């Protein structure tokens, strides 16, 4: 029985390996937290801590990691919510400031801190430097802009029913 006490750490390491393999299969960030906790308990066992202390360390580290670290990690690793606009869609409906005279052919606008080539949606409309405009759509790498109206609502991403 003495050898069992001497090699308790090996049981924790084996548990950590099994939990690590389960994490690889599930990719849920639960078992990786338990793996880290098992390695913590293994270090306590290697240092000569009693079984009660080892279990308390395992439970404590598991709880801490699952309650504090896992939610943060999930927020960083999971993609944005379906309702959150990204890429080009995030620019539609945003305000911009004209940096160069903008016509229906050429221009420059600053939107969300980035400079975009721009053109007016209205062939008759010219915007002057400093004018505040709204992005109506993005054509390639060009922001198509119109006058900024308070009642403006960005178009939905769904295609209109024909």
Labels describing this entry:
162 residues; alpha+beta; disordered C terminus
Provide the structure class.
alpha+beta
Question: What is the tally of beta strands?
Answer: 5
Distance between the termini: 79 Å
Strand coverage percent: 15-25%
Report the uncertain regions: 151-162
Count of helical stretches: 4
Topology diagram in text:
Layout: H1 2-6, H2 8-26, H3 31-46, H4 51-77, E1 95-100, E2 108-111, E3 114-120, E4 132-139, E5 142-147
Parallel strand pairs: 3-5
Antiparallel strand pairs: 1-2, 1-4, 2-3, 4-5
Describe the protein's architecture and organization.
It is a single chain. With 162 residues, this protein is an alpha+beta fold. Helix content is 41%, strand content 19%. Strands 1-2-3-5-4 form a 5-stranded mixed β-barrel. The longest helix has 27 residues, at 51-77.
In short:
The chain is 41% helix and 19% strand.
């Amino acid at each position: 029985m003495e050898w069992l006490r001497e090699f308790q750490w090996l049981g924790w390491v084996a548990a950590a390996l099994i939990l690590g393999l389960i994490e690889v299969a599930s990719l849920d960030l639960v078992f990786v937290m338990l793996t880290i906790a098992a390695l913590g308990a293994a270090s306590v066992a290697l240092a000569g801590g009693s079984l009660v202390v080892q279990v308390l360390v395992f439970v404590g580290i598991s709880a801490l990691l699952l309650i504090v670290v896992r939610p943060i990690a999930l927020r960083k690793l999971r993609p944005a919510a379906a309702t959150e606009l990204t890429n080009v869609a995030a620019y539609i409906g945003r305000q911009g400031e004209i940096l160069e005279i903008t016509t229906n052919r050429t221009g420059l606008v600053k939107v969300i801190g980035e400079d975009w080539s721009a053109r007016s949606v209205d062939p008759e409309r010219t915007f002057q430097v400093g004018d505040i405009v709204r992005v109506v759509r993005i054509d390639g790498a060009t922001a198509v802009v119109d006058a900024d109206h308070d009642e403006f609502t960005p178009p939905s991403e769904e295609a209109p029913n024909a």
